Amino acid sequence: MKKKLLYAGSFDPVTNGHLDMITRACALCDDMVIGVVKNHSKKSRYSFDDRVSMIKLATVHLEHIEIDSFQGLLADYVKDRGINAVLRGLRANADFEYELQMAQMNARLFEGKIETVFLMTNPEYSFVSSSIIHEVFSLGGDVSGLVPDRVLEYMKSLR
Amino acid sequence: MKKKLLYAGSFDPVTNGHLDMITRACALCDDMVIGVVKNHSKKSRYSFDDRVSMIKLATVHLEHIEIDSFQGLLADYVKDRGINAVLRGLRANADFEYELQMAQMNARLFEGKIETVFLMTNPEYSFVSSSIIHEVFSLGGDVSGLVPDRVLEYMKSLR
Amino acid sequence: MKKKLLYAGSFDPVTNGHLDMITRACALCDDMVIGVVKNHSKKSRYSFDDRVSMIKLATVHLEHIEIDSFQGLLADYVKDRGINAVLRGLRANADFEYELQMAQMNARLFEGKIETVFLMTNPEYSFVSSSIIHEVFSLGGDVSGLVPDRVLEYMKSLR
Amino acid sequence: MKKKLLYAGSFDPVTNGHLDMITRACALCDDMVIGVVKNHSKKSRYSFDDRVSMIKLATVHLEHIEIDSFQGLLADYVKDRGINAVLRGLRANADFEYELQMAQMNARLFEGKIETVFLMTNPEYSFVSSSIIHEVFSLGGDVSGLVPDRVLEYMKSLR
Amino acid sequence: MKKKLLYAGSFDPVTNGHLDMITRACALCDDMVIGVVKNHSKKSRYSFDDRVSMIKLATVHLEHIEIDSFQGLLADYVKDRGINAVLRGLRANADFEYELQMAQMNARLFEGKIETVFLMTNPEYSFVSSSIIHEVFSLGGDVSGLVPDRVLEYMKSLR
Amino acid sequence: MKKKLLYAGSFDPVTNGHLDMITRACALCDDMVIGVVKNHSKKSRYSFDDRVSMIKLATVHLEHIEIDSFQGLLADYVKDRGINAVLRGLRANADFEYELQMAQMNARLFEGKIETVFLMTNPEYSFVSSSIIHEVFSLGGDVSGLVPDRVLEYMKSLR
Q: Cβ of D126 and E123 within 8 Å?
């Protein structure tokens, strides 16, 4: 049986923390679907199309990856797509409590057929989040090394 | 490629929290090795042989599981045994910080070839640990439903 | 002396976590006032009247409970109503820090005459909050068992 | 119905944090039993008799308080003594996680008939614990204001 | 070499917690710059001019303090102003995680030339934040003792 | 006025996390005293003399550093030595709560004359502690890059 993993998020923008997670998880599954959230309740910083473009640029060198859009209930999406497990990254305690709550709710909605699996962040990226990257970048700070080079170029081209 | 997962611990004694973790992780891998720690620095409550007997009783109904003893450096063991990933359970923030530290240290020792993957505890067992089970049981309290029935019988037979 | 307990919240909507808290606290006091917040700073998902209707449906089987509306400063309300203690539920660390801050501030405003008492959540409902219930329900997910049946019917009738 | 509250601990030694908790909880119940733990697994700093003497000195001015010894399973003791609720204090996150675990385990053992209720520490005593008091006192540091005056005299008399 | 410390914030309004931090930090440096944030992303409760006036009232008795406005990237500001270290206060775990993230990001942007140093809050003010002060004050509650007297008068004059 | 900073610990053994803290703090003070704890309540892994030798090896390239032994009450030591501030490192929430407690207790004992100042760990060393280093090293694992090279040689020479 082939194992298909989902990594969903708004990727607003994708960071080297996300890319590290994707790269490491690739080795644990047969195929990975990256689900870019379309109807994220928080207004997104970048448009859906830009967020998809950036994650394509970030993962162009990786195989067995499909980039898809995702909206609505995660539980419906994973059933429709034949996903075996959902991947989440953990950086800090604040993440942990939110992720615990979501994983326990999803365990009910998944009816025990799909698992949420977690990887711990690489310490190098423990302080990296899309929001801090965006805040620093928008104030003119240097975020090279924290987002993939091609993504940084894309971000600069939109300014 | 077959995926082999390691779940290591002292299982002193094995609880329904452990068993829930094992059962759910079975669906994510091809084979699972349960590594019962032999040289645990904390003195164990039950002998190594009793701990192995209990985990065998707990998992007798499951397939693709091998129970092995484990001592020394985890990084050496996983390389020797051809493990692809190490499984850990997460219950609470206190777990999280310790597990984050161990996973980041092991990421170095594993040289990026083996991952530590985490599952969140089932809320039903969020307060269950080997030490609280042992404490309540040794004071004569009822722990049925928190350890597998066959394990509870075994624990009673040792009194 | 009769002990009167206040359980205040926005109940937007009331969940089985709230109901568990109310049921358990009933055994600790003589009377309980459920104070439905009227001027909650966050915009509420359901109207004040709907939130009151739902909590009435949820507690119709319980005695010694009065449902009241509440706005303004908690310290003023509890003095006006002759409350002896304020009840709060604790689920997770994130709750804890906020609740510690509020309880310490209120201890000043209560002038040592009224206490804030806490009960720990039932593990079965540890991941249940009004916001996650609303999010899943509004996306069409199944929340039965997490809100009282009569409340779920009410929620469906408003769709 | 009269409400009887239990406050159990090793009180090794009793601090002003404990006394603040006892004083505040007195107003919430009809009677309070202070259960001094006899068989505490950690070796105690002061003998059982000294710990009882110190808590008697600390609470001599309070009414409706009974000081008792306690050993074995808490659930057995509270049933035997007709306790309605168990009181615990919360200072910090580290307390919270341990207390959540114990309260959820005890909820099972109490069979829903007895509750664990929590009060938040007074910020003035948020950093006060028996162990830090003992450590500072034994190194000759000044702990006045952090333990009741009569308890401090008693501690000095034992040097 | 003279050590110049920056304490930046929105001070919306300044509290006795802030003032305690400023007073204690004065003893650790030669000069202190208080940087009142001008373009804070959250809409401020008080106007920039009112926030500056209040912090001037709060610190009028202190020497070697300069009150300045601050906007844009912190890293640029500290280089421009010849700051040696940035001061931050820590109250609770929730603070800690956010501060850890910001300090690690700023360490990159500061290129190792400027440090972020932390002081722990005085327990007396552990529950005091600008937002809780504002919430209680705006509902008519008594916040005396939690903000400097002159600041409280100023706040009342604006009602 | 010259600022003298104390960095006290058991350094059992000193790690690159400690060294990073020392190097960064040097830039914030005029002189630094490294106080190697002599009477540490936990039995130390390395002898006092070995711990001193290792920290000397680790800091041989740094100026304005004095290595001293320290026992008894910190508050007495800092007064005797004319220390202006005590330095502590923060890695994780678990550190934070312990450090908050110690800093608040010491603030009393220091009578407001000496401060405890904190630096956040470099993310590169966030998972590094003396105990995990010792555990991995004693099981034959590779800890190069996590302790200074000269310290690692010293540790190997003692095997």
A: yes
Kindly report the three-state secondary structure assignment for every residue of chain A.
CCCEEEEEECCCCCCHHHHHHHHHHHCCCCEEEEEEECCCCCCCCCCHHHHHHHHHHHHCCCCCEEEEEECCCHHHHHHHHCCCEEEEEECCHHHHHHHHHHHHHHHHHCCCCCEEEEEECCHHHCCCCHHHHHHHHHCCCCCECCECHHHHHHHHHHC
Partners of E9 in the beta sheet?
Answer: E36
Which pLDDT belongs to residue B93? Answer: 75
Tell me the ipTM for this assembly: 0.92
pLDDT over 60 at E76, yes or no = yes
In angstroms, the separation between the Cα of residue F62 and the nearest Cα of chain D is 33
For residue D128, which residues of chain F lie inside 8 Å, CB to CB?
105
Provide the pairing of β-strand E65-70 with B65-70: unpaired
Q: Is-contact F63 F156, C-beta < 8 A? A: no
CA distance D140 to chain C (A): 32
State pLDDT tens for residues B99-120: 989 999 999 999 989 999 999 9
**Could you give the CA distance from residue E152 to residue E136 in angstroms, rounded to a whole number?**
12
Class of domain E4-157: alpha beta
Peptide bond into F13 cis (omega under 30): yes
Residue range B10-31: mean pLDDT, rounded:
95
Which residue is associated with the tokens 């509870």? B152
Integer Cα distance of F97 and F99 in angstroms: 5
Distances (CA, A) of A6 to A17, A71, D85: 16, 13, 46
d(CA B103, CA B107): 6
Cα–Cα–Cα angle for E100, A101, A124, rounded to 5 degrees:
30
Phi, psi of B13 (to 5 degrees): -95, 170
Subunits with 3+ C-beta pairs closer than 8 A to F: A, B, D, E
Percent of chain F beyond pLDDT 90?
A: 84
| Alpha carbon distance E67, B91 (integer Å) | 47
Tell whether omega for the bond before C13 is within 30 degrees of 0, i.e. cis. Answer: yes
Q: Count CB-CB contacts under 10 A for residue A159.
A: 7
What is the average per-residue pLDDT within B76-83? 95
Please tell me which residue in D42, D108, D156, D159 is annotated as part of the active site.
D42
pLDDT value, residue E91: 87
Tell me whether residues C118 and D119 touch, CB distance under 8 A.
yes
Among candidate residues F10, F16, F19, F34, the one with its CA nearest the CA of residue F145: F16
β strands within C17-147, DSSP E: 31-37, 65-70, 85-90, 115-120
Q: Which of B72-86, C38-52, E25-39 has the lowest mean pLDDT?
A: C38-52
pLDDT at A58 over 80: yes
For residue C126, the chain B residue with the least C-alpha distance is: B123
| Type and span of the H or E element at C4 | strand C4-9
Q: In what order do the strands lie in the sheet with D115-120?
A: C65-70, C31-37, C4-9, C85-90, C115-120, D115-120, D85-90, D4-9, D31-37, D65-70
Residues of A with CB under 8 A from a CB of E: 92-94, 126-129, 132, 136, 139-142, 146
Tokens of E98: 């956010």
- Strands of chain D, DSSP E: 4-9, 31-37, 65-70, 85-90, 115-120
Which pair of structure tokens corresponds to residue D53?
């003497």
The amino acid that residue D152 corresponds to is L
**The pair of three-digit structure tokens given for residue D137, joined into one six-digit string:** 């006192």
User: Tell me, what DSSP letter sits at residue F122?
Assistant: P
Mean pLDDT confidence for E149-156: 98
Domain locations in chain D as residue ranges: 4-157
Task: For the full predicted model, state whether its pTM sits above 0.90.
Answer: yes
Instruction: Report residue F153: phi and psi, to 5°.
Output: -60, -45
Kindly tell me if the per-residue pLDDT of D94 is higher than 80.
Answer: no
pLDDT tens readout for residues D115-138: 999 999 999 999 999 999 999 999
